[in-house]
Amino acid sequence: MKREEVVNFSAGPSVLPTEVLEIAGKELLNYNGSGMSVMEMSHRGKAYLEIFESAKSKLRAALSIPESHALLFLQGGASLQFSMVPMNLMRELGKGRADYAVTGNFSEIACKEARRYGVISVAGSSEDRNHTYIPKQPELRLDPAADYFYYCANNTVYGTEWQYVPETGGVPLCCDMSSNILSKPVDVSQYGIIFAGAQKNMAPAGLTVVIIDKDLAGREMACTPLMMSYRTMIEKDSMYNTPPCWNIYILGLVLDWLEKQGGVSGMERIKREKAALLYGYLDGSALFRACAEPESRSDMNVTFRTGSEETDAAFCKNAAAAGFTNLKGHRKVGGMRASIYNAMPVESVRRLVEFMKAFEVKNRV
Ligand SMILES: *Cc1c(COP(=O)(O)O)cnc(C)c1O
Predict the structure, then answer these.
(1) How far apart are CA 87 and CA 93, in angstroms?
(2) pLDDT at 365 over 70
(3) What's residue 364's pLDDT?
(4) High-pLDDT (> 70) share of the chain, %
(5) What's the mean pLDDT in 318-345?
(6) How confident is the model at residue 40 (pLDDT cuts 50, 70, 90)?
(7) Which CATH number goes with the domain that contains 224?
(8) Atom 5 (ligand 1): residue with closest C-alpha?
(9) 199, 249, 311, 348: least buried by Cβ within 10 Å?
(10) Residue-wise pLDDT tens digits, 198-212
C-alpha cells in the first residue's frame, strides 16, 4: 500500500507527521551541510548540541515549562519511570509512602512496581467498572503524608482520560502523560514530575521526556543506579551517557510542526474536533458504542465495540483492507481502539467515520 492509502490508528509507536518524515528523509545522509547523518554525529559536537538545545527550548516553550522545573531526555521508556519515580521520590526504602490512582493498564503496572520500594496506598481505582471511568476528586482517598501522588493522565488501553488535575493538598503530583502530552496546555508548575514515552505524541520509541521540579531531585535512595538518578541527569543535562540523539532530533522537527498547528492550544482545538466527530457518530450509532463513560472519555484513544466479537473482528478485517489499520483493541479489552494522536489529521478521522457508517448500513441487525 502507498502511505496515502493507509490511515494508521496504531496506539504506539504511532503516526508521525508526514512533513516531519520528509524533512528527516531529506536530511538523512547529510544534515545541514555537515556531510553526516544526525545518527553519525558526536553528541558533544557543535552541530548536535545545537539540535539538542533547540529541541529543549522548543519543548520548554511549547509547554511553558517554568524555570523551577528541569527538562530531561532519558531512555528506558515510560516504563523505567515506574521504577525511577519511587526510587527518587520515596524518603526511605521500604518505609516511604505513596498514593497511586489505578485507572488502567499502565498505572496498575506502575503501582505494582512501586510496591517493591515502599508502602503504596491505592488512592483511587476504576477497576470495579473495568476501567471505563476516572474517579472523581471527592472519591480519592488521600494520604496527606504521602511522598507523592501518582496517576496516569490518559489511559491508552481503556480509552479514558482525567478531565481534572487532582488536588492533593501539597503532596507532589507525579503524572504519566505518555499518551496525551502536547495535546493540550498544562500548568507544569502544578506538577512534581511529568513523564512521557515519546512514541505516542512526540517522536520514535526510545526517548522519554521527564519534567521535574528541581526541588524533588537529590533525595534518591542510596541503592539508586546512577543512570536512574534524576540528580545525575539534571547535573549532566541528560548527557551522563549518550542520549537518544536521533529521537531528540525528530522531536525537534515534530515541535516545529506543532508550532505551525498553533502549538498546544491549536492541538487542543484539533483534537476536540477529531474526538467530537468520532464520539458523536458512536453515540448515534445503532451498531457501535463507545466503551468509556462520557465524562471520562479520552480524546486520544477512542475505544468502542459492537457487542459481538465476530462483528468486531469482521469490522477490523474490513477496515484494514480499506486502509484503516491498527484498529484492533488491546488484547486485555478486545473491541476496537482508534488512537487519534496529534499527528492524525481531522480528515482521516472523517474518513473513518464514513467507513463506519457504511459498515453499519451493511451490518444492521
Ligand atoms: C505506552 C505507554 C507506556 C509504556 O511506554 P514504554 O515507553 O513502552 O515504556 C506507559 N504509560 C502510558 C500511558 C503509555 O501509553
Answers:
(1) 8
(2) no
(3) 78
(4) 100
(5) 97
(6) very high
(7) 3.40.640.10
(8) 78
(9) 311
(10) 999 999 999 999 999
Residue 3 CB neighbour total at 10 angstroms: 8
Contact 6, 325 (CB under 8 A): yes
Do 320 and 349 fall within a single domain? yes
Atom nearest to 79 CA in ligand 1: 9
Cell triple for 116: 517493591
**Residue 110, ligand 1, Cβ within 6 A:** no
Is residue 294 over pLDDT 70?
yes
Instruction: Provide φ and ψ at 359, rounded to 5°.
Output: -65, -40
For 151, the domain range is 22-259
Between the CA atoms of 32, 36, 39 and 40, what dihedral angle is there, to the nearest 10 degrees? -150
Q: Report which secondary-structure segment, H or E, holds 164.
A: none
**What beta strand segments (E) does the chain contain?**
7-8, 69-74, 97-102, 119-125, 148-152, 154-155, 160-161, 173-176, 193-197, 208-213, 289-290, 301-305, 324-325, 336-339
- Residue nearest ligand 1's atom 12 by CA: 178
Do 222 and 266 have their domain in common? Answer: no
- Averaged pLDDT for residues 230-250: 98
- Which residue among 100, 103, 106 has the greatest number of ligand 1 atoms within 8 angstroms of its CB, and so is best to mutate? 106
- pLDDT (mean) for 234-246: 98
Tell me if 247 CB under 6 Å of ligand 1: no
Query: What does the mean pLDDT of the chain come to?
Result: 97
163 within some domain: yes
Q: Report if residue 17 sits inside a domain.
A: no
